[in-house]
Structures are given as C-alpha cells and as structure tokens.
Amino acid sequence: MKKILWFVLMLMLAFNLAGCGGEKPQVQDDKKQAASSEKLKIAFVYVGPVGDGGWSYAHDQGRKYLEQQIPDVETTYIESVPEGADSERVITELVEKGNKIIFATSFGFMDSVIKVAQKYPDVKFLHCSGYKTAENVGTYFGRMYQARYLTGIVAGKTTQSNVIGYVAAFPIPEVIRGINAFTLGVRSVNPNAKVKVVWTNTWYDPAAEKEAAKSLLEAGADVITQHQDTPGPQQAAEEKGKFSIGYNSDMSKMAPKAVLTSAVWNWGPYYVETVKAIKEGTWKSNQYWGPMSDQIVDLAPFGPMVPDDVKKLVENKKQEIISGKFDVFTGPIKDQTGKERVAAGQQMSDADMLSFDWFVEGVEGTIPK
C-alpha cells in the first residue's frame, strides 16, 4: 500500500512539473507576440517596382536603412501602385491594417494622401515631392537640382558633339527644374552645348524610355541623361558606344561602360529622423526640402572614363554648393527666347523654383500644356 501511495504521489509530482514546464514556452510566446504587437507599423507606397534600379529602389533602400537603425519598427511596402484613385484605396487599406505612418513616394499620390488623411487624423502621412499639407500630412523632397547641376558639368566636359540628350518623364515643375539645373551646369563649362529634351509621359516604362534615348542618340547626342526610373536610357547609350548620366541610384552596374556618374537619392537618414520625431511626439507638419549639405542628394562615384581634372572641378563646385557660397539658380539666367528671367546676382526663391514652367537658354524642346 505504501508503495502504491508513493507511486501515485510521484506520478502527480511528475504531471505538475510537466505542466509547469509546458507553461514556460507559452509565456515566452506571449512575450514575443506582445513585443511584436508593440512595434510601430510603417508602410511605404511605391509607384514602380522595387527592382527598377531607380526611384522606387532608392526609396526601398531607405526603408531597409530605417529598419536597421530603429529595430522596434515594422515596415511594409506596396509596389507598382498607379497614381490617382487606385492609390487612395491602397493607402486606406494600409491604414486599416494598423500602419501609423505612411510614406507615399510619388507626386501623383498627393490628392489621395490628403483625402485619406482627413479620415484618419491619428495617422501620420508623409508625401514625397508634393506641396499639399495638413495637420497630419507633411511633404518631403531634396534639392536634387544641386546634384543635377554637378552632373551637367560632367556632361558638358564630356560631350564632343555638343548635343546632350535628356529623357524626361512628365512636364511638371520638378522635372523642368532638373532639366534647367542640368543645362546650367553643362553651359557653365561648355556654352556651345545644347540639351535636347524628349518627353515620354512615363515614370517607369523601360521600353519607351530606352526608345526615347535612342531617338536622341540618332539626333546626334553623345551623352544621355534622364528623369526616369529605369536604366533603359543608360543601356541605350552603352549599346551605341556613347556616355550617360544616371539618376536615382548608382546606375553604373547596368551600363558600366557608359555611366559617367549618377545623381542619387539617400532617403535613409530622413526616414530615420522623421520616425524618431513621430515616436518622440515632436513631429509637426512641415515641407522639408533638404539640400546637398543634408546628404539627401549626392553624386555616385565617377566612372573610370572621367578625367581627374573634371572630378576636381566638380568637387570644388560641390563644396561651394554645400557651404552656401554658390546657388544654382543665381542670375543672370535667360530663358529659351533670350529673355532675362533672373537678374545678375539675384537668387530664385523656393516658390519660383517649385513652380518652374519655362526652360533656360540652351534647352531644345517644348513644355506641353
């Protein structure tokens, strides 16, 4: 009887221990789930695929940098979202899934952001390259025209035909401003050079953008640049044995024999600082337009075909821009007709630069209405 009682007691003890042991993993799982649920959810909306090698790729690199720098955030993204009404649906769905910060990364998402933001006042929305704001909506962009000017110097020093091709997306101030800055850079070192513009009315259409570059090469261009999200124009230049200037990210991998340099975006630090401010409760709606001194815009490394004297020339001018000694849109500046638009010594205001609707002297092409 004692043996039976002892056996029963031992069996009960074993069950209790097993029960206690079995509870521990559940407690740990609960803690993990709680930690996961406490992460700040952030969503990114891209107009193109993250593999475009350009605009959306650069933003996605910034998203990854954000995750590395702030571990207690959980990010997600939706790629290839059409601009217009469909983007409103996508942004709404992302908010409904619990995302508290939305980064909408294309100009055409602006109206959708404003509409959705009105319905969700507790969510913060950051819209890239737009101009409409609200209490919970801010805008952000970088002064890419500064980097564009520097790449113009490289192109102006490289061209032999004095014809440079520019494959342009849409005739909006952002794109026009980049064309003008690039042309001013070109003509600062080569007053005889012309910049020919072809519009594609696309952000991401590899075939159309490559064909546009081909038409410029056939028209005599020996350097091609672009405001597009694909490396198609770069590849077109390489196939013809000509040179190119990349955009958005370092495009030298796509056309190593052609790419002289690229005007590049570095979104990561901005995303980190913005999320930190929101987490700390110090963020307020604003319109951020970061200069080269913030490193949000920069140049990619030079290709081996760029001479040292050109590198030095560009670096000197870059330092002048960073220090504030030189401003790209400082007069005298004339338009295509020869009319003076900016007087000598005068600097264009941000408002004027953000509403560009005319080309500077040296640009060949028209601005569709």
UniProtKB/TrEMBL annotation:
Q: Which GO terms describe its cellular component?
A: plasma membrane
What sections of the sequence does the record tag as coiled-coil?
A: none
**Keyword Signal, does the record have it?**
yes
Species of origin reads Desulforamulus hydrothermalis Lam5 = DSM 18033
UniProt keyword annotation of Protein biosynthesis present? no
Q: Where is the ABC transporter substrate-binding protein PnrA-like domain?
A: 40-323
Ranked from the top, the taxonomy reads:
Bacteria, Bacillati, Bacillota, Clostridia, Eubacteriales
Instruction: Check the record and name the Pfam families matching this protein.
Output: Bmp
Name the InterPro entries on file.
ABC-Purine-Binding, PnrA-like
Q: Which UniProt keywords apply?
A: Signal
Please state what the protein is called: Purine-binding protein BAB2_0673
Signal sequence residues: 1-20
